[in-house]
Amino acid sequence: MTIDGNSPEQAAAYRALVAAGRIDAFARSREQFSEFFASLDLIGPGVEWVTDWPEPLPDDQRPGGIAAYGAVGRKP
Fold first, then answer.
1. How many domains does the chain have?
2. Which residues pair with 69 in a beta bridge?
3. Would you state the pLDDT for residue 61?
4. Pfam families of this UniProt entry (predicted)?
5. How far apart are alpha carbons 56 and 13 in whole angstroms?
6. Closest CA to 2 of 29, 37, 34
7. Any idea of the CA torsion for 45, 49, 53, 57, to the nearest 10 degrees?
8. Which residues pair with 48 in a beta bridge?
9. Residue 36 belongs to what domain range?
10. Tell me: the pLDDT tens digits for 23-65?
């Protein structure tokens, strides 16, 4: 889960829920998510929105409300 790409209002609402202890999901940025793969060889295309992996979808076919990165890595 990420709040990358959300409006400032949506990001602020998420942060308020976290601060109030009303949500237990931890949003990670692309950079933070990428750190999970630091010791692995990424398989193309690397870290991308799940809707763009392995290939980007046309805008008219892209589902809304998907806020997650995906990647596949293997041990070197």
1. 1
2. 49
3. 86
4. Methyltransf_19
5. 29
6. 29
7. -120
8. 70
9. 8-74
10. 988 999 999 999 999 999 999 899 999 988 888 888 888 887 7
- What is the spatial distance between Cα 76 and Cα 65, in angstroms, rounded to a whole number? 34
Say if 24 falls within a structural domain.
yes
Would residue 60 count as lying in a domain?
Answer: yes
Task: List the structure tokens of 7.
Answer: 């409006």
Query: Does any domain span residue 42?
Result: yes
Residue 47 token pair: 């870290």
10 Å CB burial of residue 73 (0-12, 13-18, 19+) is middle
CA dihedral (25, 12, 19, 32) positive or negative:
positive
Q: Residue 12 corresponds to which amino acid?
A: A
**What one-character DSSP code corresponds to residue 61?**
G
CA-wise closest residue to 51 among 32, 66, 72: 66
Q: What burial letters (b/e) apply to 22-43, b meaning 16+ CB within 10 Å?
A: eeeeebbeeeebbeebeeeeee
